[in-house]
Amino acid sequence: MDILIAENFKGLISYTTNLSFIKHGKKNVLELWQQLMNNGARIQVHISVDGVHDMYDYVRINGNYQRLTNNFMTLKNFLGHKINIMFSPTHMIYNIYDFTNTFVELYINLGGNISPRMNILEYPRYLNIKAMPKKFKEIITHKLMEENIYKLTKEELIIKKYNEQKIALIN
Q1: What is the mean pLDDT of residues 36-44?
Q2: Helices (H), 7-113
Q3: Reduced to 3 states, what is the DSSP secondary structure of residue 13?
């Protein structure tokens, strides 16, 4: 980034990050991005997320969902109105069944955009969603088609999430 700043770069810079850290060594990445934007560059950030809450912490080695959300809110508050921030969920066997909760959490509760680019874990292959037995694929397909979250309004998604939380409390 130092070279881009020194060269007065004015194009688009697109990052994919897990947003575990917003510092690189002693440098604050957000301040570097601010300098790039002051020079005329545009910044686009895709945040790779493997799940939410306990799922994120389980799947992401040394993951900490609270740290991710804190870093996201810092990013959003510092530069959110100036850059394009999108979530790019990474799908795998561990989290594909719970995708709706991930979608609702990232879109509704955190207020991010869901990227049209969906990441599928390629390695290790045994965690790739294509490695699931056919019966599980059918179950998950049915669940996702039944939920059809893309046709719900924001308010319907909030109600859906609230109802899911109520059911969880009952059970």
Answers
A1: 93
A2: 29-38, 54-59, 65-79, 99-104
A3: strand
CA-to-CA distance for 157 and 155, rounded, in angstroms? Answer: 5
Q: What is the mean pLDDT of residues 84-108?
A: 80
How far apart CA 75 and CA 50 sit, in angstroms, is: 19
> What three-state secondary structure class fits 43?
strand
Pairing of strands 42-49, 27-28: unpaired
Give the helix ranges, DSSP H, for the chain. Answer: 2-6, 29-38, 54-59, 65-79, 99-104, 134-147, 154-170
**Chain position carrying tokens 């969902």:** 65
- Cβ-contact 41, 12 below 8 angstroms: yes
Report the distance separating Cα 52 and Cα 36, nearest Å.
31
Contact of 31 with 1, CB cutoff 8 Å: no
Q: Are strands 42-49 and 12-17 parallel, antiparallel or unpaired?
A: parallel
Structure tokens at 167: 């059911």
Q: Yes or no: say if 85 and 45 are a contact pair by the CB < 8 Å rule.
A: yes
Taking the C-alpha atoms of residue 119 and residue 48, their distance in angstroms, rounded to an integer, is 8
* d(C-alpha 24, C-alpha 83), whole Å: 19
- The reported pTM is 0.76
With beta carbons less than 8 A apart as the criterion, state whether 42 and 65 touch.
Answer: no
The mean pLDDT of 68-85, rounded to a whole number, is 86
User: Using CA atoms, how far apart are residues 93 and 50, in angstroms rounded to an integer?
Assistant: 11
Q: How many residues does the chain have?
A: 171
